[in-house]
Design goal:
Number of domains: 2
Shape: elongated
Number of helices: 5
Radius of gyration: 21 Å
Helix content: over 70%
Number of strands: 0
Order of helices and strands: HHHHH
Oligomer: single chain
Length: 124
């Protein structure tokens, strides 16, 4: 019986791709929620004169961009994480927990340029 190490790599790569799709869906849902929240907050502000149609359109575009930025950031509202907890199958939850620390280390290395320090942090 031969063991194909490439098969394990392919399965891991496929699982990471599937995990990314789930994360994209959850991020999109958080962006939609945030966009709705921002637009409702904007409506709650009392104004002396109503905004023009052009201003309303501009504000809706800005709310959309702000919501995408907030959902894509590490410290968003936290809706993405709650959605992922609900929709991810168990085997992908385990993969997500394994991948997250590695991504943080890689981000630290790219920002600081200090690969040695990042490796020391991961072993502590």
């Amino acid at each position: 019986m031969k063991i194909n190490p490439q098969a394990n790599v392919d399965q891991a790569t496929t699982a990471k791709k599937i995990l990314k799709q789930y994360e994209d869906v959850a991020e999109g849902m958080e962006a939609n929620f945030t966009n709705h929240m921002l637009s409702e907050m904007r409506k709650a502000v009392n104004k002396e004169t109503p905004d023009s149609a052009a201003t309303d359109y501009y504000n809706s575009l800005m709310d959309d961009e702000h919501s995408k930025m907030m959902a894509g950031s590490k410290n968003g509202l936290g809706v993405k994480g709650m959605i992922l907890d609900q929709i991810l199958p168990q085997h992908l939850k385990q993969l997500r927990n394994q991948v997250a620390p590695q991504q943080q280390i890689a981000k630290y290395e790219s920002v600081s340029g200090r690969a040695d320090s990042a490796k020391e942090i991961s072993h502590e």
